[in-house]
Amino acid sequence: MSTAGKSGAREAMLEEDPDQNYENVLAEIQSFELPIEATLRSVYDDQPNAHKKFMEKLDACIRNHDKEIEKMCNFHHQGFVDAITELLKVRTDAEKLKVQVTDTNRRFQDAGKEVIVQTEDIIRCRIQQRNITTVVEKLQLCLPVLEMYSKLKEQMTAKRYYSALKTMEQLENVYFPRVSQYRFCQLMIENLPKLREDIKEISMSDLKDFLESIRKHSDKIGETAMKQAQQQKTFIVALQKQNNVKFGKNMYINDRIPEERKEIELKQGFEEEDENEEEILTVQDLVDFSPVYRCLHIYSVLGDEETFENYYRKQRKKQARLVLQPQSNMHETVDGYRRYFTQIVGFFVVEDHILHVTQGLVTRAYTDELWNMALSKIIAVLRAHSSYCTDPDLVLELKNLIVIFADTLQGYGFPVNRLFDLLFEIRDQYNETLLKKWAGVFRDIFEEDNYSPIPIVNEEEYKAVISKFPFQDPDLEKQSFPKKFPMSQSVPHIYIQVKEFIYASLKFSESLHRSSTEIDDMLRKSTNLLLTRTLSSCLLNLIRKPHIGLTELVQIIINTTHLEQACKYLEDFITNITNISQETVHTTRLYGLSTFKDARHAAEGEIYTKLNQKIDEFVQLADYDWTMSEPDGRASGYLMDLINFLRSIFQVFTHLPGKVAQTACMSACQHLSTSLMQMLLDSELKQISMGAVQQFNLDVIQCELFASSEPVPGFQGDTLQLAFIDLRQLLDLFMVWDWSTYLADYGQPASKYLRVNPNTALTLLEKMKDTSKKNNIFAQFRKNDRDKQKLIETVVKQLRSLVNGMSQHT
User: Fold this and answer.
1) Looking at the DSSP assignment, which residues form a beta bridge with residue 455?
2) Which of 327, 403, 513, 743 has the highest CB neighbour number within 10 Å of its CB?
3) CB-based contact 641:618 (threshold 8 Å)
4) In terms of DSSP bridges, do strands 455-456 and 483-484 run parallel, antiparallel, or are they unpaired?
5) Distance in angstroms (rounded) separating the CA atoms of residues 449 and 13
């Protein structure tokens, strides 16, 4: 029951029986079980003056307790007195006992002083012994840690960083946990991260030195690798050649190198191969890769291998870009290309070595990606720089370097097909440079040629020419010495140079890993370019040169004829080299026939042109007196000189094909006829006398006699004389003065003067009319002259009407 509940109950009780209730309150106060505050409050909170009654009850209760205490004391008083009496008696005995105990204690203390001293010494010794044992135990625990740490310091000093990292792992995992409570251990633990960072920095510094070292030595590494690849290839090729020589088989026909010389060169090649094998070093001999291994192991132990790999690859990519950047003048010398290739080979040889001796530092995918990037750059660089090369020897050396470069990297597993594709582009460039070089060679040959048949005085000279040029002529062989070949000296020289060109072109085709059919096709195409473009151009330029005369042009035509006949021997020559039969379906034919035919046609055209020019030169020497009254009775001097010149020239033409000589002769006569006609009709010529016409007729008669003398055989009948038919009919018309017949038969197919044009006749007649007018003062006294003048005027009118009718009809 709570206090509030008890107070309420108590108040109810006070109301029912106040005396009994006061007794209960006093009992509660004496029991000390309930808080006195609540009990007192219930008394004071009761009816007015209730506390007085309570006080009275309380005093009564106190008086009762005092009586009880007094009774109890009276009951025990005697016992207390007795006890005090006995205690006083004991007091005396206790004092005596105290004196005795004090004396005994003093004597005991005096007797135990030495024991105490010795006991303290023993305790002190035991403590020291315990401390020593503890120290020894702790030292035995700490000494391995200190020894390992000392070992760590020694390894750091000796630059054995990988071992130092392993030692750190042991310290951290095994030793430090045993002594972690000591301060020196904490200092060591705090120092280990710094040591690790120092090791990383040192190893990275070593790696940087290594990267710088291989950058400097990459050209030497590449040179060594390329030498090894070249020697291996040379050995294989030499072995194949030796086997071919042994079994009587020749891959290539080369009449410039005797077989004995080949065998000697093979033996020398094997000896040089053995010597070089002893001298050549490997990449491990040239480069110390330990910094890479060490750094890789260190970063692997440190758990930072990815950082190292990324750094290494990044730096190597930077170096790759530097290596792939060529010098601006690289194309000027082969050494520039060689240095470029050796650096690239050295770079990728190192990468290949790293790929095979480490795990994960570089991967095949990484090297392939790097190689593809490099290959694209290399091809672009070579394509750009090779375009500047004008020396075929330099292009050929570049090709050999590219082949060695490709073979070397192919031996290390890098794909190089694109490089061989590039070589086909460079092959075109090489052919272009060869064509330019041979254009100069051909020009020099043409410049040095005297354009006269080759004279030979003995058998040796004859055989010397035959050995150079495949000439066959039974009639010439039967002739006695001295005799002459029909061609000039340039023909065998050109033939030899074409073969030299084929050899030069063949050099580029070697080592390209192509079949004999492809090589044959390449040789024939390049030879066709030489014939159709270079030689043809040189011939055309030669033919068009001003100083080349008719005799030289005739010899050029003869030369081209023999060169054309020699084309089949060039095809046989290529066939012997490649062992590809000409009957093969896809075999390219040489276009020499068309080339020399075109050149010959150009020369023929030039002969016609120069012959006409020469005729014009003679005609320009003509000095007619167009007003003479009577002819000289003989032909003009210039014309006789011209006819003599034509006779001598046409004698030279006897060596030409018949049609060429006939065409030239006909062209010359026609041009002479046209020139003479133009001379009569020249607008600057105002007057012509009959005497001048008669003199001109004498010259035309000489031309007709020349034409009828058959200066060039093969003309039928008077075909050549027809070249002067226009002049003959015109002169006959004026000489006979047969105008009535001309006017009457004009337009008739059977007309005697069918070739006389009215306009031409009118022009010439007006020139003669002007002459008649000049002499009209005296002629008016002569009846015949007056009649003739009237006739001329009548004919002029009729001719004009014919001309006008022709123009209207047109």
Assistant:
1) 484
2) 403
3) yes
4) antiparallel
5) 169
Contact 283, 349 (CB under 8 A): yes
Measured CA to CA, the distance from residue 334 to residue 396 in angstroms comes to 10
Separation CA 131–CA 767 (nearest Å): 159
Question: If one looks up domain 622-778 in CATH, what number appears?
Answer: 1.20.58.670
As a whole number of Å, the CA-based R_g of the chain is: 68
Which CATH number applies to 431-584? 1.10.357.30
Distance CA 467, CA 492 (A): 9
pLDDT tens-digit series, residues 204-215: 888 788 888 778
pLDDT bracket for residue 809 (50, 70, 90): low
Secondary structure (DSSP) of 511-563: TS---HHHHHHHHHHHHHHIIIIIIHHHHHHHHH-TT--HHHHHHHHHHHHHH
Interval 734-747 mean pLDDT = 87
Is the model more confident about 278 or about 556?
556
Q: What is the spatial distance between Cα 13 and Cα 36, in angstroms, rounded to a whole number?
A: 18
Predicted confidence (pLDDT) per residue in 501-559, tens digit: 989 888 888 777 777 788 888 888 888 888 888 888 888 888 888 888 888 888 888 88
> Average model confidence (pLDDT) for the chain?
80
| Cα separation of the two ends of the chain | 161
Q: Are 643 and 701 in contact (CB under 8 A)?
A: no
The single-letter DSSP state of residue 46 is: S
Q: What is the pLDDT of residue 588?
A: 60
Q: Is residue 758 a contact partner of residue 802, using CB atoms and an 8 Å limit? A: yes
